[in-house]
Amino acid sequence: MKPFIYDYTLERLREWMNEAGQPAFRADQLFDWLYVKRVCDFEEMTNLPKMLRARLAEAFGFVTLSEITKFESKDGTVKFLFGLHDDHAIETVVMRHNYGNSICVTTQVGCRIGCTFCASTLGGLKRNLTAGEIVAQVVTAQQLLDETDERISSIVIMGSGEPFENYEATMDFLRIMIHDKGLHIGQRHITVSTSGIVPSIYKFADEGTQINLAISIHAPNDALRSKLMPVNRRFPFEEVMESLRYYMAKTGRRITFEYALIGGVNDRPEHAEELAQVLQGMLCHVNLIPVNHVPERKYVRTPREDIFEFQRILERAGVNATIRREQGHDIEAACGQLRAKHMEFQAR
What are the residue boundaries of the Radical SAM core domain, all occurrences included (predicted)? Predict the structure, then answer.
């Protein structure tokens, strides 16, 4: 299969043009067609020579994201289930806020991390997405917003999969997104979320970006985290925390800790007190997430008042904490829910 044109950063396109005997500015023109004009046909790129257009069409393909289904929530959230060229399916979510539009992208088909409260891991990991398949989610969503003169202003890499287990593709995706000749998404408007892949956290710290880092923690200690997140047996809690301390020392940037509250499991006052002690003195923010109901899982939501009490305990200890505003609840916008239903339907 041909490589996807969206797989290539501007620097790689310039290298390709050089090898093709073309001046470097042709790559800039091509990049403009891809990400500013958002054209998906080389023949429409009229300021490129006809011979070059033919050569590009011979060398590259465009990512085909076929829309299997799309749901729109009462709050404006749009959830897509896209089909890929190999009959796999992925989810992408566009969320509308009063401060702009954000997109939640997927980096893998399925997930092997195995978090016991998450729908994404049902069925395991099928494959990594290429950088271009991640890019295509943003381009497709932006084309939707173009119809109403709206713009994607922020990106969260929090869809299905573990981005730090698909590290190089994720980084190429980020380089394409932030480039000032393309979509030019501000680095501080992008967040990458990881379950704690320690070697990749160190690598990411050394990248020198201003991109935000979030860590799915979900427990204040090793034993409980291992029960909820099997990845903790591979990268124990203290190793994860040590890598995050390195990240903060290297970058000076605040970390977001994502904590899914599960009724009767990790949401008791003693859990909040232990978490506050672990995070004491760290430059961080805790995002409390009421767990989404997944039919295949047996977990229940934490009562509303208990969520507020958990937040109060953290804040009394000097740890900044907010409760995530839920969006798309009426369309099952949580990671993996729509794909899981699609897989079940296909299996019938």
Answer: 97-330
| Positions in the chain whose pLDDT score sits under 70 | 293-297, 326-348
Q: Which two tokens stand for residue 317?
A: 């200890």
Instruction: Report the binding-site residues for S-adenosyl-L-methionine.
Output: 161-162, 193, 216-218, 292
Give the annotated binding-site residues for [4Fe-4S] cluster.
111, 115, 118
- Do 186 and 164 share a structural domain? yes
Rounded to 10 deg, the angle between the 25-35 and 10-19 helix axes is 130
Last residue of a domain, one of 40, 59, 78: 59
Tell me: do 74 and 53 sit in the same domain.
no
Residues 239 and 154 in one domain: yes
Domain match, 94 and 117 both? yes
Which residues are part of a known binding site? 111, 115, 118, 161-162, 193, 216-218, 292
The distance from CA 38 to its chain's CA centroid, rounded to whole angstroms, is: 21
Of the candidates 233, 26, 9, 228, the one whose C-alpha atom is nearest the C-alpha of residue 115 is 228
Active site (catalytic) residues: 91, 335
If we measure between CA atoms, which residue out of 188, 195, 206 comes closest to residue 163?
Answer: 195
DSSP 8-state secondary structure symbol assigned to residue 262? B
179, containing H or E segment: none
Name which of 107, 99, 97, 162 is nearest 130 in CA terms. Answer: 107
How high is the mean pLDDT of the chain?
Answer: 92
Give me the amino acid identity at 97: H
Domain's final residue, options 39, 59, 79: 59
Query: What one-letter code names the amino acid at 58?
Result: E
Distance CA 58, CA 191 (A): 35
